[in-house]
Specification:
8 helices, single chain, about 10% strand, alpha+beta, about 260 residues, about 50% helix, six-stranded mixed β-sheet
Length: about 260
């Protein structure tokens, strides 16, 4: 008598269970692959967004000096400033307020500013109470009968700040003390170099002033100052904000620094 090939009800249930288990495992494997793919895609998207954000941020904060490849003064910022701390040009007083000063060596008001506030600022810098960032500009080149005195004197200041950083503030003070009249031809390079020597700058550094090493940098810094909304000198910024106080009154700016 032939044996029946028909499955019992129990065998069919077991076969169906095994098939369901097989299909379940296949589905789980598919879901795991899908999750892995989704995680990889999310990571790639986040990385692309972060990279794009960095590029946008850098572009937004780019200045005309960001890609400048010419000679640049010591520790100069991309906004055309030279920082001064207790250790001289190119240093900062950590944790101290930051004072940005936009000046032109032909500007009479800048000379008055220095006369009223120069000593206070130098003392505060030496005592670690403030970091001052000087922005030497060429706004008044038009007022020196074609000699480009504003740019030349600014470039001279950059030279001294770089090569004789401990004498740069003394040199700045003397440049204003012997400031030529607006509308004159200004001082010659030799006269500026002599002022540097009289301020204690070594002769070999003073001899470099006529080279105009930082002339192009001054031009770029002047352009950037305009981009930063600076339209006149002196302009004073305290911790990044334009200071509207009365700098012509002795002690007012120093008090603002102390309050900051």
């Amino acid at each position: 008598m032939a044996q029946s090939n028909r499955l019992t009800k129990a065998e069919r249930r077991e076969q169906a269970r095994k098939e369901a288990e097989r299909l379940r495992k296949i589905q789980e494997a598919k879901e795991k692959r899908s999750r892995r793919i989704l995680i990889v895609v999310v990571i790639l998207v986040v990385a692309l967004i972060a990279a794009a954000a960095i590029v946008i941020y850098r572009q937004a904060n780019k200045t005309v000096l960001s890609d400048f490849e010419g000679p640049t003064p010591v520790a100069a910022t991309e906004h055309g400033g030279i920082p001064f701390g207790a250790e001289g040009a190119g240093t900062r007083n950590e944790g101290a307020p930051e004072l940005d000063l936009y000046v032109d060596f032909m500007c009479p008001a800048c000379g008055q500013f220095e006369q009223v506030n120069g000593e206070d600022i130098a003392t505060a810098v030496a005592n670690g109470e403030v970091t001052v960032v000087y922005h030497p500009l060429g706004f008044l080149n038009r007022a020196s009968q074609g000699t480009q005195y504003s740019t030349r004197s600014a470039a001279a200041f950059a030279t001294v700040a770089t090569e004789a950083p401990d004498k740069a503030l003394d040199f700045l003070s003397e440049l204003f003390a012997q400031q030529p009249e607006e509308g004159s031809t200004g001082l010659t390079d030799d006269e500026v170099a002599q002022i540097a020597v009289d301020a204690g700058v070594p002769q070999d550094v003073a001899d470099q002033i006529g080279d105009g090493t930082y002339t192009e940098w001054v031009d770029k810094a002047t352009e950037q100052a305009g981009n930063d909304g600076v339209s006149q000198t002196p302009t004073v910024k305290l911790n990044g904000e334009v200071w509207e106080g009365n700098w012509s009154q002795s002690g007012t700016l120093l008090s603002a620094i102390e309050d900051a």
